[in-house]
Amino acid sequence: MNKCMERVYNGIIKENPTFVLMLGMCPTMAVTSSAINGLGMGLTTTAVLILSNMLISLLRKVIPDKVRIPGFIVVVASVVTIIQFLLEAFIPSLYESLGLYIPLIVVNCIILGRAEAYASKNPVLPSAFDGLGMGLGFTVGLTAIAIFREIIGSGTIFGAQIMPESYEPVSIFVLAPGAFFVLAALIAVQNQIKINKAKAIGEKTQLETGCGSDCSHCGNSACGTRKDN
Q1: Distance CA 70, CA 149 (A)
Q2: Is the separation of the CB atoms in 114 and 49 below 8 Å?
Q3: Which domain holds residue 174?
Q4: Residue 192 located in a structural domain
Q5: Is residue 205 included in any domain, yes or no?
Q6: What are the tens digits of pLDDT across the range 41-98?
Q7: 219 part of a folded domain
Q8: pTM of the entire structure?
Q9: How far is Cα 10 from Cα 28, in angstroms, rounded to an integer?
Q10: What's the structural domain count of the chain?
């Protein structure tokens, strides 16, 4: 796997901003009442991440180290302003739905975190793919939460009715507490999958090596895990 694809995989799976790093919780809780809002917010943040990472990487040797954070904020704010004007001009419905949360992208810890941790230390192309990976990971997280909230809370998905007419929506799921319930449930499922996978890998390793975990009666003196009393 080359470096660029590794950055994308890292952002979506290994260091997913929503389910692993738990970053950007403010928009995660606020805008995920519908799937279209979650997807729109995620893609908007992805565009900002890619462009800001590229610009900060280009300017990494120009911005003085002592003022790098204010410099990063100026770059991010400029990109967010451009994206905001484009949304207002071409997708006004999404612009109105997201409202205040578009300018608040400027202080999103995901964007400033990637600028400081990666873009300011690496070339342009890997930085762009790092932004892409983190943005897509954020989009996946927001959209997944929004889909569950919209189905349970409204009986729809992307505005289309999918539940039968007899279904009684659970209105709390389109309110702020519903976001916490869904996020907690999805993280619990993810953690359980990781635990099961780790156990399966451990059992497979023991079978392949013939290790029975009984070190006190093990006759293999070359075993790295054996401890002789």
Answers
A1: 37
A2: yes
A3: 3-187
A4: no
A5: no
A6: 999 999 999 999 999 999 999 999 899 999 999 999 999 999 999 999 999 999 998 9
A7: no
A8: 0.84
A9: 20
A10: 1
